[in-house]
Design brief:
It is built from 5 helices and 3 strands; from the N terminus they run ααβαβαβα. It has helices spanning 2-9, 22-26, 43-55, 72-75, 86-102, and strands at 35-38, 61-65, 81-84. It has a 3-stranded parallel beta sheet. Helix 4 links the parallel strand 2 (61-65) and strand 3. The longest helix is centred in the last third of the chain and has 17 residues, at 86-102. The chain starts with a helix and ends in an 8-residue tail after the last helix. The model has no long low-confidence stretch (mean pLDDT 82).
Length: 110
């Protein structure tokens, strides 16, 4: 909820709720949003959300958090699922930041 408040302060339309709940999904303006992001690192929850989005005929992009490769893309080919892996993504960012610092360009990576 704290991150949601911060994102709203930056002008992003953010909704927080149970992605597995049909009632919650019915409150979302799915026809007007380009991305749905699930930050729960649980394949079962992500797949339940993807199935619910399919039932709602959501046609936008989806990002889900995973700590390992899961089969979200294969399970839901209707959705273009972007997998967020905090460990891998954090390591990639740290490596790029270190390269920038070594090259004398600290702060280049954001």
């Amino acid at each position: 909820p704290e991150v949601v408040r911060d994102l709203r302060r930056h002008g992003l339309r953010v909704h927080y709720g149970d992605g597995e709940s049909p009632e919650f999904l019915e409150t979302l303006p799915l026809e007007h949003i380009p991305w749905v992001v699930c930050t729960v690192p649980d394949a079962q929850a992500s797949n339940a959300l993807l199935a619910a989005l399919t039932r709602c005929r959501y046609g936008g992009k989806v990002a889900v958090v995973t700590h390992q490769r899961d089969d979200a893309r294969a399970t839901h080919p209707r959705h273009r699922v972007h997998l967020l892996n905090p460990y891998r993504d954090g390591a990639d960012f740290a490596a790029l930041d270190l390269v920038a610092r070594i090259a004398g360009r600290p702060g280049e990576v954001e």
